[in-house]
Amino acid sequence: MSRARRDSAASPDARANAVAEALAAKGLVPDGFLDVVKERATEAWSPRNGARVVARAWVDPEYRRRLLADGTAACAELGYAGPQGEYIVVLEDTPDLHNVIVCTQCSCTAWPVLGLPPDWYKSPEYRSRVVREPRRVLHELGLDVPESITIRVWDTSAETRYMVLPLRPAGTEGWSEERLAALVTREAMIGIELVPEPGRDPLTDS
Fold first, then answer.
1. Fewer Cβ atoms within 10 A, N terminus or C terminus of the chain?
2. Beta 150-155 vs 88-92: how paired, if at all?
3. Is position 137 within any domain?
4. pLDDT over 50 (residue 205)
5. What SS3 class is residue 70?
6. Is residue 56 included in any domain, yes or no?
7. Number of structural domains, the chain?
8. Model pTM?
9. Domain extent at residue 67
10. What string of H, E and C letters represents the secondary structure of 28-65?
């Protein structure tokens, strides 16, 4: 494809709108259906949901046990279920083990708790390299994992969606679930950063 043709190509949003308008014009989708899907993708499917799951597991040992035994059911307890969340496996970080998620085939994530995948997660470079040299890739992303800690990479599939249960940071004893959840990022639940201690940056201070 020539540079001129690439430069004149419609934006992704414009192309998506054109497809939606064509489907609606042909009567192939019910009225309001696409608006419902858009609202679900941008609001209902959110990393905020996963952050609440993590916070609950940090403060409730029985919930944490259920989460690790059956992530799908435990997430559904908090109302987080649906497409791409039918079989969620939760991976617990420990002082000796750090988990990282990837989808080498495409860009699968557990939508109900992680939201739609970010661009970097979909990139061929991340998908191909993190399975071969995870410590180096994490370093390039800003996270230095000591050699004494094992890194385990989990390849998401159409059947199994993973979510990391990161370590609870020091200095958060006695915090409420809401306050804890505010610390948890999508990146920490994928495994490319740590949940920061209060007042610390998760990347530059790791």
1. N
2. unpaired
3. yes
4. no
5. coil
6. yes
7. 1
8. 0.77
9. 43-190
10. CCCCCHHHHHHHHHHHHCCHHHHHHHHHHHHHCHHHHH
